[in-house]
Design goal:
- Among the domains are: about 170 residues, Alpha-Beta Plaits (2-Layer Sandwich), CATH 3.30.70.270; about 120 residues, Homeodomain-like (Arc Repressor Mutant, subunit A, Orthogonal Bundle).
- It is about 55% helix and about 15% strand.
- The protein has 23 helices and 15 strands.
- Strands 3-2-1-6-5-4 form a six-stranded antiparallel beta sheet, with helices on both faces. A five-stranded mixed beta sheet has the order 12-13-11-14-15.
- Strand 8 and strand 9 form a beta hairpin.
- Helix 1 runs antiparallel to helix 4 and helix 13 packs parallel to helix 15.
- The protein is elongated.
- Keywords: DNA-binding, Membrane, Transcription, Transcription regulation, Transmembrane, Transmembrane helix.
- This is HTH araC/xylS-type domain-containing protein.
- It comes from Paenibacillus silvae.
């Protein structure tokens, strides 16, 4: 048995008391007040019924149809813009998927919806859940049954319309006259949502069953159903309720005109219609602007007042009984969720709650505990607000704002209102290695706070650090101008140089009207910042003509790179540095894209690195990186690059010259030994140079200087001497001798042998034989 202090007992007592008090009040009210005001009450009730009827039509039919349009527009399971483009790029499967989607929407709303049609004005194509895919939709068979909304929407300056009801056959393609028709309204709306009918990509039309509205009116106003009509703003009937009356629709024309002339959304007045007094009530449907008109004979109210006097006592008694029964039902129904909630609280509680505790007190304690947790959560969110703001800014700059309400997005950015114009500026705060350490996070944080404090009238700044250590500054203003942008640029540079370093550069993007388009301005600022490397003398990069270089096809003359390599290999310092100057001047004054220029600069570094590796030269590291390319990436601008590359090449040439004078002789000896050991192999300058780590040209030069003859002559002489020894000491054919000393063809060997010794190998063999015979005879 439940305790009297429990929630169940409290609910039972409360509901029982309420029922008794209400019944007593109703009884007293009826006896005291009804005789004087019942007629007026019935009129108000009649108006209320009409309002409820309008609200029911609005909620269960009209708004539901509008919601169906919204659901269809947002549905991602099929592409609603299937035929919106001019080119046919859609397959049959996509058409079937979209039609199946329409049929599914109709099936889910079959109580009010007859069919859904998608009309594509640009292609004059209609895809319907009822009629399938129809080309030349406005001229095809059966088009007369949907021509009203189709023609009107194609030229409409509005985005939606409701058509009056009309009778449409079940089969619009049949030529047989049939009585099997349906009364339909049509709701047509443009897509995208903000477009008008004449500018829309797609027109979505939903056929609504007239019976859905008529049934609501008949069920909610059964006694006045035959005297009810729905008209549009022009006074024309949009529903054929009046046709179901006794053919007296014309007698209401005068009072209908009076309703339309009043221009009120709802109301009630007395009117004489056909020599009989009537009470006319009307109510406007907000979604369509239609008006529900109802004319009720005045006698209806007086007839009811006589009967009601006799039934007051019985109604009060019945109400008391029913109220007590309903109270018991409501106590049970309302106590059930309380019981479940209390049970859930007990399950989640660490300790066991006191069973004697009132359920409401237990729920109150649980909510207090929940409040504490919510407060802790709010404190955590406040602590994480910088990270939330950082993510929001990055999403805007990347062009993919989070899919959450825009008010929340602005709140995360700290923007209290919308501005007319926005512009993004970009500052590079990362100091180059050669100019000192980069700014600390604390210094960046102080700088960001100081920059956001800079403001002018109707303007504010949003400053955020990017992952690459640059600062993105979003300028929000109501008075966009180049003068304002220049003023803010100077203020930003002055503040940044004061706190970080004096050579900060800033780039500015274009103005945009919507903060969600700020990524366009940011992309321009990023592109301009690329050219800060090549124009370090410019503090502010705002010349948008630099953007044209991104699409330029101009190239650096390739012969400059070839000459740079040749001058390095030949150790011509002046020519090499002059080539560097020409390349850099071409980049600064020309129209080559920034990325291409960096590609050329890195190629020059790679050329220099290859030349240094060929002579096994290890350069002195300036920044602690293992190779030249990493040193190049630390150059702040192209002038620093020029100083670094020129200085490094100068050191390289000076050190290699000193080293070569000591190593020349030993290198020549190594080359000679290799030639001696490999006379039958490839002894080209390239092959031998790679073995002694010298370039072919430099090896040839060393041979000329150290040996006194050319490299080719030296190799030929050694091969011929070896061939002569082989001929003298071995019984070998001329072909084998030629192959043994590295000649691929015997004829060429014989030619070179004759040039060297004045006779052919065969003559030399014969001369040796003659000499041997002579010596034997002696």
């Amino acid at each position: 048995m439940k305790k009297w202090s429990s929630a169940w007992a409290g609910l039972a007592l409360s509901y029982g008391s309420i029922v008794i008090v209400i019944v007593l009040l109703i009884c007293s009210f009826f006896y005291i007040y009804f005789s004087r005001s019942y007629n007026e009450e019935l009129r108000n009730k009649n108006q209320l019924i009409l309002e409820n009827t309008a609200r029911t039509i609005e909620g269960t039919v009209l708004k539901r149809v509008q919601q169906l349009y919204v659901d269809l527009s947002l549905d991602k399971s099929a592409d609603i813009r299937l035929f919106a483009d001019q080119a046919d790029r859609n397959g049959l499967n996509q058409v079937l998927d979209l039609q199946e989607l329409l049929k599914a929407k109709v099936a889910a709303n079959t109580d009010i919806v007859q069919g859904i049609h998608l009309y594509y004005p640009a292609r004059n194509i209609m895809l319907s859940s009822l009629y399938g895919l129809r080309y030349n939709a406005d001229q095809s068979e059966g088009s007369v049954y949907y021509a009203d909304w189709l023609q009107e929407m194609r030229t409409s300056k509005h985005n939606s319309l409701w058509t009056p009801a009309r009778q449409i056959p079940k089969d619009i393609f049949s030529t047989q006259t049939s009585e099997n028709t349906s009364g339909l309204f049509t709701y047509a709306h443009s897509y995208p949502f903000r477009s008008t009918g004449e500018t829309s990509d797609v027109i979505i039309a939903i056929d609504v069953k007239e019976d859905a509205v008529n049934t609501i009116v008949e069920n909610m106003m059964p006694s006045r159903y035959q005297h009810t009509v729905i008209v549009n703003a022009a006074g024309h009937a949009v529903s054929r309720l009046q046709e179901q009356s006794s053919g007296k629709a014309d007698i209401y024309a005068a009072s209908l005109g009076k309703v339309l002339d009043l221009g009120h959304a709802k109301g009630s007045f007395d009117e004489t219609i056909g020599d009989a007094p009537y009470v006319v009530s009307y109510q406007t449907l907000p979604s369509t602007g239609w008006t529900i008109y109802s004319a009720t004979p005045s006698s209806y109210y007086y007839e009811q007042s006589i009967l009601i006097q006799k039934l007051i006592l019985g109604i009060c008694l019945a109400a008391l009984c029913i109220g007590l029964i309903l109270s018991a039902v409501l106590v049970r129904a309302n106590y059930s969720p309380i019981k479940r909630l209390v049970g859930r609280i007990k399950d989640l509680s660490v300790g066991t709650p006191n069973e004697a505790t009132n359920e409401f007190r237990m729920i109150d304690n649980a909510f207090l505990h929940l409040k504490d947790k919510v407060n802790n959560l709010e404190e955590t969110m406040i602590a994480n607000s910088p990270a939330v703001r950082h993510k929001a800014v990055l999403n805007l700059l990347q062009g993919n704002p989070e899919q959450r309400p825009w008010k929340e997005e602005r709140a995360a950015l700290g923007i209290a209102r919308l501005y007319a114009d926005y512009c993004c500026m970009l500052m590079n705060t990362g100091a180059p290695v050669e100019k000192g350490p980069a700014a600390t996070p604390e210094a960046i944080a102080r700088l960001m706070h100081g920059l956001e404090c800079l403001s002018l009238q109707d303007s504010r700044l949003i400053v955020e650090e990017l992952p690459d250590k640059r600062l993105a500054v979003i300028l929000c203003t109501d008075a966009a101008s180049e003068a304002l942008l220049d003023k803010f640029s100077q203020l930003l540079l002055a503040e940044t140089r004061q706190q970080l370093q004096p050579d900060i550069q800033l780039s500015t993007g274009c103005w945009v009207k919507d903060l969600r388009e700020i990524h366009l301005s940011f992309n321009e600022a990023q592109t301009l910042m690329k050219y800060a490397y090549f124009r370090p003398e410019l503090a502010i990069l705002k010349d948008h003509s630099l953007l044209e270089r991104e699409h330029s096809l101009e190239e650096i003359p390739q012969h400059l790179l070839a000459r740079f390599r040749d001058k390095l290999q030949s150790r011509q310092l002046g020519e090499a540095t002059n080539t560097i100057e020409q390349v850099i001047e071409h980049m600064r004054a020309g129209q080559s894209p920034a990325d291409y220029c960096h590609f050329i600069l890195s190629n020059m570094v790679f050329i220099y690195s290859d030349v240094a590796k060929n002579v096994r030269y290890k350069h002195t590291l300036q920044f602690g990186h293992p190779d030249l390319y990493h040193e190049y990436t630390n150059m702040h601008d192209i002038l620093a690059y020029r100083r670094w590359l020129t200085g490094s090449i100068t050191t390289f040439m000076e050190e290699t010259e000193n080293r070569n004078s000591d190593r020349a002789i030993s290198t020549i000896e190594l080359a000679k030994q290799y030639i001696e050991d490999n006379l039958s192999e490839d002894l080209s300058l390239e092959a031998v140079g790679s073995k002694v780590f010298l370039s072919p040209k430099y090896l040839s030069k060393l041979f000329k200087e150290e040996v006194g003859i050319t490299y080719t002559d030296y190799v030929t002489s050694r091969r011929m001497e070896q061939a002569k020894l082989l001929i003298e000491n071995n019984n070998m054919t001329i072909d084998r001798v030629a192959s043994s000393v590295g000649y691929g063809t015997t004829a060429y060997f014989i030619k070179r042998f004759k040039e060297m010794y004045g006779c052919t190998p065969g003559s030399y063999v014969r001369s040796l034989s003659s000499t041997a015979i002579s010596e034997a005879r002696s």
